[in-house]
Amino acid sequence: MTALLEVEAVGKVFGGLVAVSDVSFTLAQGEIVGLMGANGAGKTTLFNLISGAMAPTSGRVRFEGCAIEGRRPDEICRRGIGRTFQIVKPFPGMTVAENVAVGVLYGARRRTPSAREVAAETDAVLAEMGLSAMRDKLAGELTLAGRKRLEVARALASRPKLLMLDEVMAGLTPIEAAGALDMLRQVHETRGTTMLVVEHNLRAMMQLCQRIVVMHHGEKIGEGPPEVVIRDEKVIQAYLGAQA
Amino acid sequence: MIAQLVFVGLTTGAIYALIAVSLNLIYGTMRLLNIGHGDMAMVGAYISFWLFTLADVPPYVSFLIAPAVSGLFGLLLYRGMFAGLLRRVQGDAVEGSSLLVFFGISMVVQNSASLLFSGTPRAYRYFDGIVEFGGIAVTESRLVALAVAVVAIGAVLAFLKFSIWGLGVRALIQNRAASAIVGINVDFAFTFASVVGFALAGLAGAVISMYQAVTPFMGGPYTTVGFVVIILGGLGNINGAIIGGLVVGLLETAGIALTGPNFRDLLIYGVFIAVLMLRPQGLFGRKGAH
Amino acid sequence: MKAPSWFAGPIGGALVVALLAAFVVPGMAGDYGIEFATTLVLWIALVQSWVILSGYTGYVSLGHAAFVGAGAYVFILTWGAVPFWFGLVAAGFTSGLLALIVGGPCLRVRGPYFVILTLGVAEFVKYAVINIEASLGKFGRLMIGTPEPVDIYRMAVGLAAIAFVMALVARYSRFGVGLRAIRENEVAAEMTGIRVRWLKVGAFGLSALVPGVVGALMICRTGYFEPLQMFSPQLSLTIITMCVAGGSDNPWGPLIGALFLNILSELLWDSAPELYTVILGVVLVFVVLRMPEGIYGTAVKRLARRSRKAVPGETTP
Ligand SMILES: Nc1ncnc2c1ncn2[C@@H]1O[C@H](COP(=O)(O)OP(=O)(O)O)[C@@H](O)[C@H]1O
Ligand SMILES: [Mg+2]
């Protein structure tokens, strides 16, 4: 089992605020790992550090053995890390199919695909994500559930080796969330994509993830199999403390 | 000599600050980029000129009439156009659309003035005596301009600082979404910014007409300087606009004195570009979280 | 995404139209007609070049006049010293180079900052040229032996055809998809693997080539170079008006916008130039407020909606 992603003692400080502090963990090829923690724990910031949206203040991020921290997001994407945004950012004035085509055209590929390949692969991803019926709708006209799904589709279209999902089920109805969960499992089954998933829905996380990393106030406070982590005193304390 | 230059720089800068503050009031609250702002000054200048020439109304009376007219114009524009636009469009699109709308308005206003009054430069003489004090010699009109600008800007600042409505406007400039939630009357703040923003531009024009020839196209350079200043001071930053206005006024005066009038524009735009590239948030702005 | 073969139609069409325009129109039109046609065709070239950056990426540039002026300036400086064609090409590439140089830093700021910055840079370049000329004791330069109006017209047609094809290819290629993704959401575009900086600067450089040549042809028409006129911000604003009026997400909108405003100008300019500008302003305000996608975009939408209604039984999700 080789490590796909290694996060080594990564930290990020905004002015005086320590958003992420000395966080380390690794992801093996093909794993699905959950990242949990109360709001403000630093999960999205960690995603930003890995995907290149921001440079860490300290520490390393290795992907397939290469240090990638501080590199441009587009380069990191082409190396094989795809992500979604907690606050969704589709291309609102483009159709659903065009959104996905952007991923196909610019994602991790050795050469520029031909027009036919782009069309075929776009169709395949749309079908995989159940978006075929909406392909010619403008992304801005979709419901929240639709836009979240589209974000996953766009990320998948860039053929990531690692897919990072930031609360793709938050704000969805239970039925929509269940649909999203099935879809992610399906993707994992057929593509074997490694995933790092941020989600508050504990039940979904237990079903989906082989391992969970818990953050609190920017620090990693726990890691392990889901059923072990949720019984951890520190984790319970952190969650209860944050809610109180 | 130095004192003389500084004083001239300050009078020029005070008018720039007046224009920039009003421009920033409109931008800060509504995110509207008014590239017709200088044309409102032109309207004020014509009002002052015609009232003086045709009806012997002294300019200091026009200092009340011109802003009343241009403020009314602002009110009508807000009610007729921008209220609707702001309800429909959000985010970056507001800025882009407003720029084009104001460009259209500017074309209409400039060329209507040109149709009505022809392109002939017009000027009148008032407050044109020379005052000397402490080794400085200035025309009365410049002194009056300085005084009017100080009073007008002071009034706006006082309103923003000490009245409850002013607090609302300031909060709105800080954060639109949050303001609406905490119950600030956004419509009032927008109306206020439109009326006062336009009125101050008209006032600036009435003042300028005392020492500069009035033409239909005199507004353009003031618009440009206004934007230079608010970029320097930070878009939406009222205090920054005041300091920025003075800085540009001094810079311009010093530049002309040191290098000759040819280099004035080169200098202003050079500084402007440098600031925008090095500190897009303005000299006095803080970098916002994104 | 369209297959590359899709380009064959419009490109062939543009070629045919250009050939017709170049060789049939001069026979039919008098001197006046040729002047009008030249003006129209130069505007078409300008708007087509402008959309490559500003229409597709949404980085609205108020600096196009700088490229027109820079091209004109280089052309007049090399006038007589180099062959005519060489001067034209040099004009285009100088403007392109200027765009590449200023593009890097300028394109780091967005939205209103970019708009105002491009205006500032254009004005800076204008005053730089004015000062250089003044220090040389020149307040305008004359050119002797410029080409005949018909020949200038034909060159303008060729240039407009090139500009159209550039705008078309830039819109419907992989490059264009990237540009539009930047417009729609730059952060997401970057995270989807798009080299945002390269694309933006590249588009800026491409969009500056044609206006450089337009500048050269413009001074050929008058035989006179005067910086205030060639670097006029009014020129940039008129380009924007044309593109907005027509719609600027593709090459067709600006084409329609340029046609529309030039015909309007033709009808009104001589008798009442101010009235023309007033109407231009009203049109601009109306389009922005009532049909933000421009004449072309709105028309396409209407047609699409009608054809959708016309097919009974078809459901839209
Ligand atoms: N760009 C930023 N600038 C300043 N502070 C930030 C920024 N992004 C996040 N933060 C702060 O960092 C902390 C962690 O935020 P975030 O990573 O979004 O948490 P989570 O995703 O776990 O809810 C919060 O206190 C947040 O306010
Ligand atoms: Mg988060």
Q: What is the approximate shape of chain C?
A: globular
- Number of structural units classed as domains of chain C: 1
Q: Which ligands are bound? A: adenosine-5'-diphosphate, magnesium ion
Q: Return the string of H and E elements of chain A.
A: EEEHEEHEHHHEHEHEEHH
By secondary-structure content and strand pairing, the structural class of chain A works out as alpha/beta
Query: Any idea of the CATH class of the domain at 9-90 and 158-240 in chain A?
Result: Alpha Beta
Q: What is the total tally of β strands of chain C?
A: 2
Percent in helix of chain A: 25-40%
Low-confidence parts of chain C: 311-317
Which percent band covers the strand fraction of chain A?
A: 25-35%
Give the number of helices of chain A: 9
Strand order of the largest sheet of chain C: 1-2
Which strand order spans the largest sheet of chain A, edge to edge or round the barrel? 6-7-8-3-9-10
Largest interface: B-C, 40 and 41 residues
Structural class of chain C: mainly alpha
Total strands of chain A? 10
Describe, in plain words, how this protein is organized in 3D.
- The complex is a heterotrimer of chains A (244), B (290) and C (317).
- Chain A is α/β, with parallel strands linked by helices and 244 residues long.
- Chain A has a domain of 165 residues: Rossmann fold.
- Chain A is built from 9 helices and 10 strands.
- The longest helix of chain A is centred in the C-terminal third of the chain and has 18 residues.
- Chain B is mainly α and 290 residues long.
- Chain B has one domain.
- Helix content of chain B is 76%, strand content 3%.
- In chain B, a hairpin with a 2-residue loop joins strand 1 and strand 2.
- Chain B is globular, with a radius of gyration of 19 Å.
- Chain C has one domain.
- Chain C is built from 15 helices and 2 strands.
- A two-stranded antiparallel ribbon of chain C has the order 1-2.
- In chain C, helix 7 crosses helix 8.
- The chains are: A alpha/beta (244), B mainly alpha (290), C mainly alpha (317).
- Chains in contact: A-C, B-C.
- At the A-C interface, helix 2, helix 3 and helix 4 of A face helix 8 and helix 9 of C.
- Bound molecules: adenosine-5'-diphosphate and magnesium ion.
- Adenosine-5'-diphosphate binds next to strand 2 and helix 1 of chain A.
